[in-house]
Amino acid sequence: xxxxxxxxxxxxxxxxxxxxxxxxxxxxxxxxxxxxxxxxxxxxxxxxxxxxxxxxxxxxxxxxxxxxxxxxxxxxxxxxxxxxxxxxxxxxxxxxxxxxxxxxxxxxxxxxxxxxxxxxxxxx
Amino acid sequence: xxxxxxxxxxxxxxxxxxxxxxxxxxxxxxxxxxxxxxxxxxxxxxxxxxxxxxxxxxxxxxxxxxxxxxxxxxxxxxxxxxxxxxxxxxxxxxxxxxxxxxxxxxxxxxxxxxxxxxxxxxxxxxxxxxxxxxxxxxxxxxxxxxxxxxxxxxxxxxxxxxxxxxxxxxxxxxxxxxxxxxxxxxxxxxxxxxxxxxxxxx
Lengths: 124, 202
Description:
The complex is a heterodimer of chains A (about 120) and B (about 200). Chain A has about 120 residues and is mainly α. Chain A has a single domain, classed as Arc Repressor Mutant, subunit A (Orthogonal Bundle). Chain A is built from five helices and three strands, in the order αβαβααβα. Chain A has helices at about 20, 55-65, 70-75, 80-95, 110-120; strands at about 40, 70, 95-100. In chain A, helix 2 packs across helix 4 (about 80-95). By secondary structure, chain B is of the alpha/beta class. Chain B has a single domain (about 10-200), classed as Rossmann fold (3-Layer(aba) Sandwich). Chain B contains six helices and seven strands, in the order βαβαββαβαβαβα. Chain B has helices at about 25-35, 50-55, 95-100, 120-130, 150-155, 170-200; strands at about 15-20, 35-45, 65-75, 80-85, 105-110, 135-140, 165. In chain B, strands 2-3-4-1-5-6-7 form a seven-stranded mixed β-sheet, with helices on both faces. In chain B, helix 1 (about 25-35) crosses helix 6. The longest helix of chain B has 30 residues, at about 170-200. Classes of the chains: A mainly alpha (about 120), B alpha/beta (about 200). At the A-B interface, helix 3, strand 3 and helix 5 of A face strand 1, strand 2, strand 3, strand 4 and helix 6 of B.
């Protein structure tokens, strides 16, 4: 699928129409809004009923065959974050994706993880 | 919630760091110095004046336009990824900050001593939301002519908030700023844990 270049989406373009037509004019996802760094994984091995799904839903599913963050998905799909959050809400509602919510830093199971981040940054 | 457990196997742990500061202070430069920038489009509400003319049937109260923010990804190791988000500089984008700052490890507030006041709103925001942050003074010409002490005093920072000098164009400098932030966040989390443990003690 080729996504349009969306050149009309510059700063002077005014209200976004097409992405919201894509999601039926909705402005809120079904269920909780997904964090930008929530990790999305498509559920494998299920028969897909495409009724009610847009090509963008299917593109999001294809891109999440391996774990991918919501932000990366939005960039890959070249769609606004809010639109992608709604698309993913639909997919979650249909149990087509698994969502791994980010763990708040203070509740990381292993505090060593943050030290690993420091060490990793030092190696940059 | 899918917190740590066997079902997380193979799923990266993702950590979020915000890069804030006034317009044109070097946020994009900083993100770009340590990682490849990807544009993330998002929406912003139209101004009040625009609301009545932009109302469309079926779009309900959707009165937004699109802005792009920068994000970058640093893979620390397999299944450990740090995401950097350059927050939109102007105050009218603060609705985005609430979403971005939720669950964030912390923030870098970039400051330019020629326009120090531009960083005040970011500092206020992160203080109010109890998010660990460091102030990074971007020395545009590379000259270390700014005194962190003077900046600390001018911004009226809490004593534990680190102030570092940087040149956002240099990867090594951007990296050091991030390290300062993560170390500060580790210390803050440790202190808060000890405080809450103390509060629970008989």
